[in-house]
Amino acid sequence: MDLSKNFDWRVKLGIFLIVLSSLLYISHYLIFNDAHSVLFYIGADIAFLPIEVLFVVLLVENAISNREKKLMMEKLNMVIGVFFSEVGTELMGAIVEFDPDTVEIRHELMVKTSWSRKNFQNAKEKVKTFDYTLHINSENPESIKFLEHTKKFLVSRRKFLLALLENPNLLEHETFTDLLWAVFHLMEELEKRETITNLPITDYQHLNGDTVRVYSLLIQEWLQYMEHLEEHYPYLFSLAVRTNPFDLDSQVMIK
Questions:
Q1: Average pLDDT over every residue of 136-149
Q2: pTM listed for this prediction
Q3: Would you say 227 and 187 are in contact if contact means Cβ atoms under 8 Å apart?
């Protein structure tokens, strides 16, 4: 119904403009009584029409498209911010406590309020190529606790994660979509197991791989989000720096 109304409105506008243009040309002829001039201007206008179409399509429409895309990315970054507030930061913090190799990249993730774009770029290149290693197995009691905690935590956020996945605009943000699917997959893997203890070695290895995937994507998306905050929302960036899960001395209070 809305589409038909929109189409009818465009058709009526088009007819009105054509009639108006015809009346103006007729008025020109009646005033100056010069058919040659009228035909000359009509021909010149028609000849210039392809250039006008080119200008509208390539420049104006492109500018509008870029502006719409920018506004959409702003909304997506708001969604990403909510994700890290509700799920991402806590989940990443839990994995950090369990990751024995965090010390190797901790320095690259000590985001400061003085960071420049080059600092963020160096950090993103480092974490993208880093070989993440977790040791989830039956011999490590801490890994069992971690999996049980992660299971309860993610299941409690199921509705929130589903709501994010239902957002069609997320298709425009491929890396964040990958992260959501990885987190949702880990939740389902853990939820389907009645118990986390006494699993086969191969099953722990599988869960280890799922967790590594989530961890890697979380860090990469977190750095991208931190850079966005630093550029556009300094006050939010300040809080994010003070709650950095990779900073052992981080504290929300300002001293």
A1: 83
A2: 0.71
A3: no
